Amino acid sequence: MKGASTASCVSPPAHLERLNSMKKLVRILIFIICVLILFWGCKNFIGIKYTVDEASCIGCGRCYDACPHNAIFYNAGKAVIIQSKCKQCGLCVPVCPNDAIH
After folding, report:
1. Is 56 exposed, middle or buried (0-12, 13-18, 19+ CB in 10 A)?
2. DSSP assignment of the chain
3. pLDDT of res. 42
4. What percent of the chain clears pLDDT 90, i.e. is strictly above it?
5. How far apart are CA 66 and CA 95, in angstroms?
6. How does pLDDT run across 36-71, given as a tens digit for each residue?
7. CB atoms closer than 10 angstroms to residue 8
């Protein structure tokens, strides 16, 4: 077969190997950051704390029941978040009927 190219095992140029290595490193770093955000909580990762708007809180207890860290207690019928126990998992936020947790 005249003019047909033959496939050969030629290693890519060094700059392409470095580029591929950098892409792999970036993917690994992004993965680690995503795992940290999921594990540690998005708000905790960026340094924001959940708080309860006392005017909106009706004291229903749903956030208390949803919190796996026992970081919520009630004072005068209103939810209060204990920041030292709160892991910013966010499980209390969607259960609040009045959107009192931010």
Report:
1. middle
2. -TT-------PPPHHHHHHHHHHHHHHHHHHHHHHHHHHH-HHHHTT----B-TTT----SHHHHH-TT--EEEETTEEEE-TTT-----TTTTT-TT--B-
3. 59
4. 51
5. 7
6. 767 666 555 566 789 999 999 999 999 999 999 999
7. 5
Say if residue 36 is in the same domain as residue 78: no
What's the domain count of the chain? 2
Please state the length of the chain.
102
Site of tokens 């999921």: 38
Does the CA dihedral 39-41-44-49 come out positive or negative?
negative
Give the rounded distance of the alpha carbon of 81 from its chain centre.
20
Would 4 be classed as within a structural domain?
no
Note whether 53 and 102 are same-domain residues: yes
CB-CB contact of 96 with 63 (8 Å) = yes
Instruction: Copy the structure tokens of residue 4.
Output: 């047909």
